Please model this.
Amino acid sequence: SGIVLVAINPYEQLPIYEQDVIYAYNGQNLGDMDPHIFAVAGEAYRQMARDEKNQSIIVSGESGAGKTVSAKYAMRFFATVGGSASETTIEAKVLASSPIMEAIGNAKTTRNDNSSRFGKYIEIGFDKRYHIIGANMRTYLLEKSRVVFQAADERNYHIFYQLCASSSLPEFKDLGLSK
Model:
């Protein structure tokens, strides 16, 4: 829809995010092909290379809309066209947050049993040849009130339940946790 991409989470894998689709969108101008996350990522990549200026992509939407998955697809596009060693290595290092981060920042909402309740700012570094050379991810909690209050049918952050489930382990004895 113009320069705005509306993402709808179909809750299943579709064949519209494969390698061949990345190559189809690579080098195309925004609007030449159907709206797609790869079209948005490609435009940002081209403008970065052409203007030698930083670019930003904002992924926004309601809980469960697929924002994190969309960011992963954009990262896959950059890793593929940016000549990184392998897309899976980049994805794993940059986007697959450690289980500890996911436990601390994810919670059950009424729309998503594993909803990321923290915002993410991902900064991807490129060299002069526009190859990915690294990335940083900054996170910030969106719902501090969730620690003491959850709406009906929602849960606190996963970490609290995981700690309580592990309360019998010797490492957690001094925490005073109970079932």
About this structure: The longest strand covers residues 132-141. The chain is about 35% helix and 15% strand. The helical segments are 19-25, 37-51, 67-81, 87-94, 99-105, 158-165.
